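Recall that a protein's primary structure is simply its ordered list of amino acids. Everything else, from secondary elements to tertiary packing, is in principle encoded there. The following example makes that idea concrete.
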Amino acid sequence: MHKALSVSALFAAIGNVLPVHAEALKVSLSEEGAYRSVQEAVDALPSTGGSILVGPGIYRGKVGVAKPNVYVRGGGKRPDEVVIVYGNSAGTAGGTRLSATLDASGDSFRLENLTVRNDYSANPANPASQAVALSVTGDKVVIANVRILGAQDTLFANKGANGRMSRQFFVDCYIEGHVDFIFGNAKAYFRKCELHGVANHAVVYTAQSRASEDEDSAFVFDHCTLTADSAARNVALGRPWRPYAAVIFLSAQIDAPVMAEGWIEWDPGKSRSLMSAYYAEYRSLGIGADPTGRERYAHQLSGREVKQWSLQSFFSRDTSWISQPR
């Protein structure tokens, strides 16, 4: 994983520090008196939320967090030491979002230093299907130093109930998948994350779904690295799930063999959404970064234009929630 700054250093650079959470509930596979599953600890929190410390191990089971102000942190030295995993698909669960291993719909949710995985695709007998690892629909959500693992539709970053906008901040995360693996209609900012395409006949990093031009949503990837397995084919930066999809890459290191045009139609030969979508890059580097062959409706941003996509501008200078203590 590309990790130029520690999580604490990055928040300090924004002008804040990570919050201190006292008296965390403990989850452990062996510690006496601890909860044995993450969901049991979530259920035990008061309605106002609280903190949960998860000890090293593999925790198989779905987790739903609807309460506000919940902070879940892995207690290992690395995020791969604490794994929350399940294997539902859209078909087996009754819907794409319902397939999520971890569903975070509560506001001010924080997740740090662990792995969330959907391992449905690991069984070769399973038919291809959407299978979400992490679904985030709460507002003011921070995901830091988390590995988010899946195949098709790995991360659902979307609005909340009744179409309410969801602001989300991801930092130092590793996100992997293949078709549309970061998708939805949130106002989401990704900083210093690695996006990895796994071996497949097609890899599409994003499927943002802004439905109208005046909707205040987008995916911004700031100093992120794009990689792919050697067997990944037809690699694209994104395709518009809805006509006004908005995705911006700032100073991306594109070490994957992204196709020359970069962006593709949702349904090539039938849909015509690239002309209304907003797809942009600023100073991309790497083997997949050549701007000369990009899709004609895509943008290469100038130094002046890029300012509107800084972290502070994107969130209208309201970033206190990124490290606001509770």
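Residues 7-322 form a domain with the Pectate Lyase C-like fold (CATH 2.160.20.10). The helical segments are 7-14, 38-44, 90-93, 311-314.
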